[in-house]
Amino acid sequence: xxxxxxxxxxxxxxxxxxxxxxxxxxxxxxxxxxxxxxxxxxxxxxxxxxxxxxxxxxxxxxxxxxxxxxxxxxxxxxxxxxxxxxxxxxxxxxxxxxxxxxxxxxxxxxxxxxxxxxxxxxxxxxxxxxxxxxxxxxxxxxxxxxxxxxxxxxxxxxxxxxxxxxxxxxxxxxxxxxxxxxxxxxxxxxxxxxxxxxxxxxxxxxxxxxxxxxxxxxxxxxxxxxxxxxxxxxxxxxxxxxxxxxxxxxxxxxxxxxxxxxxxxxxxxxxxxxxxxx
Length: 278
Prior knowledge:
This protein is an alpha/beta fold. It has helices at residues 8-23, 31-45, 63-66, 78-81, 84-93, 106-119, 157-164, 171-178, 193-203, 211-214, 218-228, 252-258, 262-274, and strands spanning 2-7, 51-56, 97-101, 125-129, 144-148, 153-155.
């Protein structure tokens, strides 16, 4: 069993702005949603039937209380924001397991799902589908890997170290030191990626740094590490078997009609027959 974990929020953004190149700003109400569903359905058609999709039901999370400049929903286009909840509903109607996150983020759901799936003895491999560098911390050997679908790159632990200069468990420490502009925290001034990797490889995690390395900036670095550390304790499922796609629900026909995407329904029905689900 190979478990596939998909960053639904990232995919929605990717589809939305990908369509913009062709629609010239004339956004279709469910255009990005249809694009994400097509991507997920293509995986199912290829035999990847153990999967789950994590989404940000709201953009803000507990991290916004820790750091006021942490990313928010400000600036997200209304046409895109309006497709967040329909994506969750349409995926569920298509029979796909969805984790809409409120207090936590979609990244935390992916981390928690990877943690739970990797403990399941029936699971051979876990693939996390997102280019987000935060998720690099979840990679373990060759069993839990990160996939950048656009660039067609698969990163196991060795390739994470090759890219970032540190092993996966130290990714939160690295991000704490160098910052993450996408998430809204700046890191520690004067410490770049190379220096950060050297420090972490010499001393280990930030908590082990000699007091003179960061000085009075140590508490700030630890706060940023808290922001960068993904939660793995979300109780998303008990067994990976529950992630198996078993066909669309009866309600998906209405969604396909609403989205003006009848081919999605036809493909779902065909996929279910091929996999003995109908």
